[in-house]
Fold:
Amino acid sequence: MQIIVNNVFLSLNEKEDNLYAKVSKILHLKETDIANIQIIKKAVDARKKNNILFVYSFLVETKRDFKILNNNVKISDFKETIDILPIKMAHRPVIVGFGPAGMFLALYLARAGAKPIVLERGKSIEDRAKDIEEFRKNATFSEHSNVCFGEGGAGAFSDGKLNTGIKDSRIRFCLREFIKHGAPENIFYEAHPHIGSDYLKKVVKAFREEIISLGGEIRFSNKFIGFSKQNDDIFVEVEDDYNKKYTITTNDLVLAIGHSARDTYKMLYENKVSMKPKDFSMGVRIEHLQEEVNKSQYGKFYKNKDLPVADYKLVVHLPNNRTLYSFCMCPGGEVVASNSEKNSIVTNGMSYFKRDLENANAALLVNVRVDDYYTGSPLDGMYFQEAIERKAFNAQKAYYAPIQRVDDFLKHKVSTQIGRVKPSYLPGVYFANLDDILPSFVSESLRLGIPMLEQKFPFFKDEAAILTGVETRSSSPIVIARNEKGVCNIDGIYPCGEGASYAGGIMSAAIDGLRIGEFINKKYNK
Structure:
């Protein structure tokens, strides 16, 4: 009999060796009646700073059946596999983009025998890493190989956080696949799982190798530039790294383009793909000393080696009817460049697996409503983002990011010196008045919200904390509409993942890739 047991507590000085005894006591069973215990969730309860606890959930296999005793014990509905039926197609499916959505979709279709062709405008993860390092050291920017474009998508260089707010039966499958391809085992049960940008390089490569071994094809430095349609056939126009153009014929074209492929958005709009504008968010990155975050969360236990590096998730509703919230919090990490175009500045956050760098950083974002920017085109949100990003660049005409100490920002002063918190952004930073770059409602909301956050978390009182601009691409400002079969207004074309606004992170994008795979499978296995 398989059951799930929730809310099992261990104190900091208790060892996991006691788990069999604790679980058997909860179940009113002998330890010998338990065949196996698997941790499926582990979290920290630090609400009482003098009594920090680990909270576990377990998948328990018992040797005999018994009556469920309370609300913390239930019959397991655990699922770690998905059924993939073989697909026979006249033409190979084409996937545009090899981020999490495209990667899991390609894996699904390859296992179904469909031999997908993946078009990735960027480079392989190995070559991409070299280009990103060159930018960080020498500000040499590549429009086709950067933190946004290339194998693994934007998530490959932004910590690899796998937590998601959605509930979906495919989550456990995705976690198992990440582990199978080289991710650490603990992502399967940590409450806030992450792989780390260092581990992700080998994980992404392993996905690629399996897809190729099953007959799939990944074409790097091959850009999707257009399409036409005749009856059921879609003619996909491609340009390779040598500026050579060619055409692929398919019946199934998947747009897993990510949220930064602006030239692709424009091309799709010109080709009458149905789109609409949507709300998104915009703001800055804030950096504190990680040790101060640990102290705030764990109190006197902040140096305890058994505790994970502390993180946070914050939201405040403001008197100006806006919301300020933290996003993509990166413990022990650094602020990274995330622009995909020349002459622009965009920030994101990143951590390695150990999360052992000096600073913590997170996006502080303010909601942007459609009526803040809309003038008639579904692309207006994209143009609104673009204008802010160019302002951040034009102040110095260099790929340096604008910064301001929190105390100076609140006092409307340009900073003149760095304090205890050293900015981590590379290739470099410059002192700026963020009011000259951000929309006025974003600056106003930050000034209203930061003092409110200080009341909740002491480390927000650190006047030396650094604000780095600008964070503009936490989500897509565009929805590419699709119907109940997963296709847009042009039959055979499937919008997918973050770029089409059907996901908001690595895990939800991976799940949406699987969802599109299931749509395609159902089409050919009616």
